Predict the structure.
Amino acid sequence: MESPTAVATLVAGTAFVAAYAAGALLARGRRPRRGIALVWIAALTVIWGVLVWLSPEGAYLVFPLFFLYLHLLPGGAGVAAILATTGYAICALGFHLGFSIGGVIGPLVGAGVALLIGFAYRALSRESAEREALLAELLRTRQQLARTEREQGALEERARLARDIHDTVAQGLSSIQMLLRAAERDTAEPEAGYVRLARETAAESLAETRQIIRELTPARLDDGLPSALRRLAADQQRNSGIAVEVRADETDLPMASQTALLRIAQGAISNAVRHADATRITVDLATSAQSVTLTVQDDGRGFDVGTAVADSQTNDSFGLQAMRERVAQFDGHIDVTSRPDAGTRVTARLPLDPAPPANSSTESAESTA
């Protein structure tokens, strides 16, 4: 081999190795951007073509190029590049060594093996992607099933508590009320006044207990939150005689979010009925692109919010605190606006795609404030 040809071959070989190493360093284990990849593979191909034209031994370097074509070029472009470089290698070998069966069969066999390996790799890659997608779907399904089971367990526990309270405390208060009514008839004044007061206290306690039972009883959400809110409003209006109006947008929420909003509405309406002397209550359910907002407003006598929050830490009136804790489980926000003799507005806002509550089974049996 003449010295100028040897030097040119050495330069071309060095350039090929340097370009290959530079591309590998730029990629660093991740797929490069398409434009950079096309420039890189084109440069390697040109350098390889010069190298093969200078020395027949350069034809062996076409084999790693085959895999780069299949990996970086989309669709049939990779196959076309393999066929083109195979033909060029056969021509270059024929130019240097003369055409022979080995000089033709060798590059063709190499191209065929590369194509088979490349197609097998793509098939494995697709299968792996499908398997990962199925696994992710399975994990999501398991998480959803676990949340559903926790919610169902919470609802069943609430129903059990409601039954137990009905069969024990409520029945006992009802019996005490009947006994006191009988004693009131048979007792002379002034002792009858004390019996009457005891009977009225028992009647109020029985009403409170039945309210708690209604709040504990799981509400039907099969047909959505708006329908459940309308049923709640109808029940409260029938029991209290106070007008309750519901304006609700249809929305698709997770069951845990629907349950939380329904419980908040239940507590706010119960507060207005039992403590605010309200004559009208409105319930609004509205959705936006990021959140769903529930607003319960009454025209009752109102209260001082700061005092009520402080009292909730020291007595059994913990309805407001329970609402705040329930909303916090969903990374939401609740705002209570009220002034004496100016009514009350409770606004709860939950994100449309909330994170699962830390303990969705925590369905506190709150007695509203």
